[in-house]
Amino acid sequence: MAPSGSRSIKKGCQRVLYWIPVLFIALIVAWSYYAYVLQLCIESIEHTGEKVIYLLVYHVIFIMFVWAYWQTIFTRPMNPLKEFHLSFSDKELLEREDRGESQQEILRRIARDLPIYTRTNSGAIRFCDRCQLLKPDRCHHCSVCDKCILKMDHHCPWVNNCVGFSNYKFFMLFLAYSLLYCLFITATDLQYFVKFWLNGLPDTQAKFHILFLFFSASMFSVSLASLLIYHCWLVCKNRSTLEAVRAPVFRHGIDKSGFSLGFSKNFRQVFGDEVKYWPVPVFSGLGDGCSFPTCLVNLDPERPSSSPAGSNPANKSAAEGRQFPSRPLTESQSRLLTSTPSWSESDGATDRKGASNSGMTIENEA
Q1: Which residues are catalytic?
Q2: I need a surface site. Which of 69, 126, 294, 296 has the fewest CB within 10 A?
Q3: Would you say 303 and 251 are in contact if contact means Cβ atoms under 8 Å apart?
Q4: 361 burial via Cβ count (<10 Å: 0-12, 13-18, 19+)
Q5: pLDDT digits (tens, 9 = 90+) for 219-253
Q6: Which residues are 155's β-sheet partners?
Q7: 3-state SS class at 300
């Protein structure tokens, strides 16, 4: 009783500590709202038209920023479907086998009916001992959440959540709107920041809020801009942060661009097909998070190949040179694959050449 009780207390304390970075961000945002709206716009700006325009634009950006941040924090990461979990009989069979090769044979048999193409560095099936499941492609076990997360990008302490398939779009919008928020504050606060140094502001507490508001917004802008640029590059390449660090391993070997379908399709995988939903923090991505279309994967010869393009010759020619999972694709995945390809063969060849020279592996076991 005592050990289990101490463990539960420890976990409870950890959960509280994990919220400290989020609380810090919330306090910074609350202070920035007070400093900008009350101290700058209402107290310091004298021109009514300028004051109204600043407040209107500020609140639009502020609402979108807070909305995206909220969605990133409170959208639960998606976990693998039940098809990837071992059945009771498979668990018993796996536990009875002592040799690793025999266990791999069992896992290979189970994986034969699943759209799994990535492997460990040694070529083994990616299996999570803690969750007792076969990891779908791009899925990793998070040691903080203690769960397998679909298309896991990273665990972010600033949102106290795993960034993955279900909330990656929200995370991107959070970065974009927070950068826009900081840039807008920096730009509109600049003239009053200059007046501060020229002693052009009245000697009130507002001058100190204006000073620190400019410094904090400027510093956050630099860090947010670098982070947003990096994640935009990842979206264009259809890679997660984990895949950028350790390239995925397929049956034919390491391939850092194995999931890349070209800029347009890579972007639509995250943001969806409908442009009107791109700037809004609502889920609009394509796919189910458990299987992903690829251009470069060599299919298991024991599996029957299938293509969403059907028997239409035009669709077959459009899908030439790429393979598809044997599991039926969702409508969004089929639409993503059967549209006109936007990636060039020369770019694909360059990525494949770079991938063959890479010595990194993909495995993020607990």
Answers
A1: 156
A2: 296
A3: no
A4: middle
A5: 999 999 999 999 999 999 999 999 999 999 998 88
A6: 162
A7: coil
